[in-house]
Amino acid sequence: MAELAETLFALARCELAVGELRRQHARLPGLIEEAEGRAQVARDIVADQRKRLEDAESQHRAKERELQEVEGRRTKFQAQTALVKTNTEYTTLLHEIDQAGELISEIETQILEALERVDLTSEQLKQVASEQSASERLHLEEAKKLRAELEQVALDLSARESERIGLIAELPESTRARFERVCREGGLGTSVVANHSCGRCHRDVPLQTVNLLRAGELHHCGNCGRILIVDDEQ
C-alpha cells in the first residue's frame, strides 16, 4: 500500500504539472497571435501614412499636368490673335486668354498647396515610420520570445506526459482501470486535496477521508471520481 501511495503521489504531482503545461500550451499561441497582430497594426499604420503621401504626390502631379494643359491652351489662343480678321474674334480670343490666365493663377496656388501637403505628409511619414518601426520590433521580439516559450513548454509537456504514462503503468490493474476511466471522462485521473476539498471539482472532502488518505488508504472523490491525494507539503 505504501508503494502504491508513493506512486499515486508522484502521479498526482506529475498530473498537476501536465495540467499547467497543457494550459500554457493552449494559451501561448493566442498570445503569439496577439503580439504578431500588434506588429501588423504598426505596419498598417506606416502603410496608411505612405498611401497618404502617394495620394498627395499624385494630386500634385495632376495639378502640374493641368497647369501645362491650360498654359498650352493660352499659348494657342495667343498665337491665334495674329490671325483673326474681326474685332469680335479678337475680343473673344482676349477673353479666352484672360480666363486661361486666371485659371493658371488659380492652379499655381493649388500646386503650392499640394506641394505643402506633400512636404507635411512626408515629414509625418518619417515620424510615423520611426515610431511604428520601433513598436513593430518590440512586438515581433515579444512574439519570438513567446514562440521560444511555446517550444520549451511543448518539450516539457512531452517529457511530463511520458513520465505520466510510466507512472500509470506502475498502478495495479484495478486501480489503473478506474484511473483510465476517469481520465476518459475528465482528462486527468488524480486530484490533490486542498483545504479539505477536491482540487479538480472543488467539492468538500470529509476530514475522516483526509485522515484515511494520510494513513495510506485509497479513496476517490465522491463527485468527479478522481483518485484523491493529500500533499501536506503544499
Number of helical segments?
4
Mean pLDDT: 92
- Give the domain tally: 2
Using the 3D structure, state the CATH architecture of the largest domain.
Orthogonal Bundle
In CATH, the topology of the largest domain is named: Helix Hairpins
What string, H for helix and E for strand, traces the elements in order?
HHHEEHE
Q: How do the strands of the widest beta sheet line up side by side?
A: 2-1-3
Shape: rod-shaped
Distance N to C terminus: 22 Å
Compute the number of strand runs: 3
Low-confidence stretches: none
Q: Helicity range of the residues? A: over 70%
Q: Name the structural class.
A: mainly alpha
The biggest beta sheet reads: 3 strands, mixed
**CATH domain class of the largest domain:** Mainly Alpha
Task: Characterise the protein shown here.
- It is a single chain.
- It contains 4 helices and 3 strands, in the order αααββαβ.
- With 234 residues, it is mainly alpha-helical.
- The protein folds into 2 domains: 26-169, Helix Hairpins; 171-234, no CATH class.
- Helix 1 packs antiparallel against helix 2.
